[in-house]
Write a structure and sequence with these properties.
The protein has 290 residues and is an alpha+beta fold. It has a domain at 23-43 and 130-225: Lambda Exonuclease, Chain A (Alpha-Beta Complex), CATH 3.90.320.10. The chain is built from nine helices and five strands, in the order ααααααβββαββαα. The protein has helices spanning 23-31, 33-40, 50-65, 75-80, 82-92, 106-123, 179-196, 220-243, 275-282, and strands at 133-141, 147-157, 163-169, 202-207, 212-216. It has a five-stranded mixed sheet with strand order 1-2-3-4-5. A hairpin with a 4-residue loop joins β4 (202-207) and β5 (212-216). The protein is globular and about 55 Å long. The two termini are 39 Å apart. The protein binds iron/sulfur cluster (SF4).
Length: 290
């Protein structure tokens, strides 16, 4: 691979941020329509947690590890990137310091981040890789006119032109019960790539903490099914938006739900549906199917 190889093109229009369906929001809707609505339509933003901050920092380090020539991409170099990238995050959001207390000091948390960065080298050898895309935003419009969006951590292209999609995970690897969700994410990324370049030969989720790698070599029928599933899902979202009702759905993750105070199943009061938010959401479908 050489650095002159082209990154897959992204079909997004520059400038205005158009609404689009992402894989995480699609999964969220499947789990609980009300939680999806509160985040996407009402625009409730959740503050960072130690886990999300660690994820952001590790992603940033691994993205920039590939700025330097291959021989320099060592664990020692990678760990030198942690402090400046953490400083940058703190400069943007000083409230991140509030995440720490005596039970988890910043130093202890940074040790964990070091461990995650070092464990990346047990999964891959970055000296042998030359990505053609990093943190790449890809927007496509499906045949049914639905805009989909994804940010792909890394895309490699082989000398034969085959694409490989890589997604770094700093959380725990999924138990067998949740492997389907992980597969859905890989298919969704393959769908994005197929729409913007070509079907990737391989998609992989790298679980840094455990060193586990989930691999899917997608075939066209897989992606056709995923496309049909996404269309069906969007039809449901549109129907909810039109009816003005996104129902809460109790699920095993309710205990971690950070909008529970607005959920009627837990004694909360759901705010009125914001009209503007619905109008905006409905622009995710760019046109009706041909
Ligand atoms: S608490 Fe559970 S049911 Fe209620 S909004 Fe959150 S995820 Fe949905």
């Amino acid at each position: 691979m050489t650095t002159t190889e082209q990154a897959p093109r992204s079909a997004h229009s520059h400038g205005r941020w158009e609404p689009a369906l992402s894989v995480s929001r699609a999964k969220e809707y499947q789990k609980c329509p009300l939680q999806y609505r509160l985040h996407v339509v009402d625009g409730i933003r959740e503050p960072a947690t130690r886990a999300t901050a660690a994820g952001t920092l590790v992603h940033s380090v691994l993205e920039h590890l590939y700025d330097v020539p291959a021989p320099i991409r060592t664990p020692e170099h990678a760990t030198t990137l942690i402090a400046p990238h953490w400083e940058r995050m703190l400069a943007k959001d000083p409230a991140l310091l509030d995440l720490f207390d005596d039970s988890m000091t910043q130093e202890k948390w940074l040790e964990d981040v070091h461990g995650l960065v070092e464990s990346y080298f047990r999964v891959e050898d970055p000296q042998r890789l030359q990505p053609v895309g990093r943190e790449q935003r890809i927007d496509i419009v499906t045949d049914d006119g639905i805009r989909l969006r994804g940010f792909i951590d890394r895309i490699d292209r082989s000398p034969a032109g085959d694409l490989r999609v890589i997604d770094y995970k700093t959380g725990r690897a999924p138990s067998p019960r949740f492997v389907d969700e992980a597969l859905f994410q890989m298919r969704f990324y393959a769908l994005l790539l197929r729409g913007s370049d070509r079907l990737p030969a391989r998609t992989q989720l790298l679980y840094l903490r455990s060193g586990r790698v989930l691999t899917l070599d997608p075939v066209p029928t897989d992606i056709d099914h995923c496309s049909a599933e996404v269309s069906h899902l969007w039809d449901q979202i549109e129907a909810d938006a039109t009816a003005g009702r996104f129902a809460p759905r109790k699920n095993p993750l309710c205990g971690w739900c950070r909008v529970q105070d607005r959920c009627p199943l837990f004694g909360g009061v759901t705010p009125e549906l914001p009209e503007k938010g619905i109008e905006n959401l409905l622009r995710t479908r760019v046109r009706t199917a041909a």
